[in-house]
Design brief:
The chain has 135 residues and is an alpha+beta fold. The protein has 2 helices and 9 strands, in the order ββββαβββββα. Strand 2 and strand 3 form a beta hairpin. The longest helix has 13 residues. It is globular and about 35 Å long.
Length: 135
């Protein structure tokens, strides 16, 4: 089973999500866990890769808050084990798009869920709403 991480950053009751250039939906900041890497190490690496060099966060403020199994949104068949981290601080600096990431969005539930990956739609957003992390 493939291991995947995602990290939740919040500001003003909104969740930071990004849109990869190769996918039609927004997803969490994150990606696969490399061999020999812990989920936390993967989350830190993916945050640096996806947010860009000008984003500033304290790596010590990441907390594992959810784990679940699901099927990858990318192909609809690959089983994955998802680790979700919450950043217990405010992200500062500037976000930088890249060859991989087309855009960023500070999401709240008034925007609807059509643009969201299955992981966000079925697991992460319900968790955020239940715990009053987003509007």
């Amino acid at each position: 089973m493939i291991k995947v991480v995602g990290t939740m950053f919040f500001d003003d009751n909104r969740l930071l999500i990004d849109k990869p250039r190769k996918r039609p939906t927004y997803q969490m900041i994150g990606g696969g866990v490399d061999e020999g890497e812990t989920p936390l190490e993967a989350a830190i690496r993916e945050c640096h890769e996806e947010l860009g060099n000008d984003a500033v966060f304290d790596e010590g403020l990441l907390e594992l808050v959810m784990e679940f199994d699901e099927i990858a949104t990318s192909d609809g068949i690959t089983p994955i084990h998802f680790y979700v981290f919450k950043y217990n601080g405010l992200l500062s600096g500037d976000l930088t798009t890249s060859e991989e990431i087309e855009s960023f969005l500070w999401y709240d539930s008034s925007m609807g869920d059509e643009m969201l990956s299955n992981t966000l739609k079925h697991q992460v957003i319900p968790y955020c709403l239940k715990n009053k992390l987003i509007k």
